[in-house]
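Subject: for your reference before the review

Hello V.,

The reviewers asked for a structural picture of the protein, and I figured it would be easier to keep everything in one thread rather than splitting it across files. Below is the amino acid sequence we used in the manuscript, unchanged from the supplementary table.
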Amino acid sequence: MANTREGLAKCTTIVADTGDLDSIRQLKPDDATTNPSLILAAVNNPKFADLVDSAIKEAQGEDLEEKVKDAVDRLGVAFGAEIVKLVPGYVSTEVDARLSFDVQGTIAKAHKTISLYEKVGVPKERILIKIASTWEGIQAAKVLQEQGVRCNMTLLFNFYQAIAAAEAKVTLISPFVGRILDWYKKSTGKDYAHDEDPGVLSVKKIYNYYKKYGYETIVMGASFRSVGEVLALAGCDRLTISPALLTEMDGMTEAVTPKVDAAAAKDMDIPKVTVDENVFRWQMNEDPMATEKLAEGIRKFAADLVKVEDIVREKLQHCLRKWMA
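And here is what came back from the structure prediction:
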């Protein structure tokens, strides 16, 4: 009898939400996603010391801070390049969250990332550049997509973020599930059944709208708190799932039934929506959950990136002292 993860894989592409190479090697997902928080966890693991040391040795820049930022860029690519060897599909690499409101800065960082990947033999077609779903981030992604760089819009909590991303023709969006549930549980004090989970309902609404109007952007549900949440979105294009939940599903035999259906969505009565900058900003203003979680997510990723930089700076300073001795 197939286990639950195998059942899910029949209707959804499974993506590993981790930067841990051993977990990816063991779980054998189709794709993998990383972010600064996952990279921070990996950097603190002694078994990845060689990757960290190599990035530091190759770092370039006019001064220490430039070298630190360059080393961190190289480190993200180094982990991504190792993951590419382990999965057949996409690997997502995140742009510096501090560029979330900087269109040109995001574009420049994305091109640098792709260039670093190409230098180590990874074609750009294997990489998704992860960008926060701010208005500026979506505009940067639109330009990048036109330039042949594929993008993954992350920290997506709102229907209008999703529509703007689809209109920008991004390759993939990562609407968050668990973080939406967290906000509503804290706000209302209620518990939610999986079929009433606000995060699950948000992704279903986006999925149905995309399929209704023929958008090619991939919908990849993210940020899950339980296997129940995952299974409530069975049938979604992709789901990025933590190793802990994937392992839990390996030990289950519950049958998996698709909960969304592209063909059925085409017959749904869903009005078409137009989103420009004014509509986007107003709808985000009217959605305290999305506004708060987007800002919180950007701050968290930025803070974790600073921690990675601190680790790299300390190691770089140690190397410089050693080289000068």
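For the response letter, the relevant points are probably these. The chain has a mean pLDDT of 94. The radius of gyration is 20 Å.

Happy to draft the paragraph if you're swamped.

O.
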